[in-house]
Amino acid sequence: MKNPNHAARLGVAFVVALAVLGAQAAPPRGDVAAGRIRSESERCQECHGADGNGNGEDGKFARLAGQYPAYIAKQLQDFRSGARRHDYMMVMARSLEEADIVDIAAYYGSLPTMRGESVPADEVVARRLFAACAGCHGAQGKGNRDAAFPVIGGQDVKYLRNQLLAWRSGERRNSPGGAMNEAAKNLTDADIEMLAHYLSAM
Q1: β-bridge partners, 144
Q2: Are 105 and 70 in contact (CB under 8 A)?
Q3: Which of 62, 87, 110 represents a domain boundary (last residue)?
Q4: What is the pLDDT of residues 30-70, one digit of tens each?
Q5: Handedness of CA 11, 184, 62, 141 (dihedral sign)
Q6: Which residues span the domain enclosing 90?
Q7: Is 126:194 a contact under the CB 8 Å cutoff?
Q8: At residue 26, does pLDDT exceed 90?
Q9: Cα 95 from Cα 93, distance rounded (Å)
Q10: Is the dihedral of CA 16, 67, 60, 199 positive or negative?
Q11: Separation between Cα atoms, residue 158 and residue 58, nearest integer Å
């Protein structure tokens, strides 16, 4: 990290994120079978796939396979409220009942965890960059179910790149305590490219 105070601020943001997430009530358990039906009828599968591994190659669609249901539900609620902005997803989320959100999240969370294909150009550098991420997202990028930090290992490389850029620019701001904006703000384009490939390969 080029800024010597960045690690300390990131540590504070991590503690705040844990406090915010810890204060949130756990969502109710969804119905996986109902979620499969709703994810098809509500057109989730058109973008995210029936297998949760996304459709398309432009990084627009997150892989949801094996993602923690609490995290999926939070993102849908954030799209609904406008805390996270995406024109299409905001419309889709606002058309869902609360039970639909919980069931769809349960369905995608029940699928085999996403797998990536990318290989980093410099694994040593990428591992050093990832060390700052591991506190929330785990040593293998598989997140933390209890705190609802998402699975990022195996996510689509272009989606990862796009989201890191959005966190860095402030276009996306819906992480608890602003932790992701703090984590991404000093990353260079080259850092982001390296991290995206490293994470996708996990």
Answers
A1: 149
A2: yes
A3: 110
A4: 999 999 999 999 999 999 999 999 987 788 899 999 999 99
A5: negative
A6: 32-110
A7: yes
A8: no
A9: 5
A10: positive
A11: 6
Distance from C-alpha of 97 to C-alpha of 34, rounded to nearest angstrom: 13
Distance, first Cα to last Cα, the chain: 23
Encode pLDDT of 98-131 as tens digits. 999 999 999 999 999 998 877 766 888 999 999 9
User: How many independent structural domains does the chain possess?
Assistant: 2
Q: pLDDT tens digits for 130-172?
A: 999 999 999 999 998 877 799 999 999 999 999 999 999 999 9
CATH number at residue 46: 1.10.760.10
Q: What radius of gyration, in Å, describes the C-alpha atoms of the chain?
A: 16
* Cα–Cα distance for residue pair 32/169, rounded to 1 Å: 36
Q: What are phi and psi of 68, to 5 degrees?
A: -65, 130
Do residues 36 and 106 share a domain?
yes
| Cα 33 from Cα 39, distance rounded (Å) | 10
The pLDDT of residue 56 is 76
- Single out the residue of 182, 171, 68, 176 nearest to residue 132, CA to CA: 182
Residues 54, 121: Cα–Cα separation, whole Å = 24
**Three-class SS of residue 112?**
coil
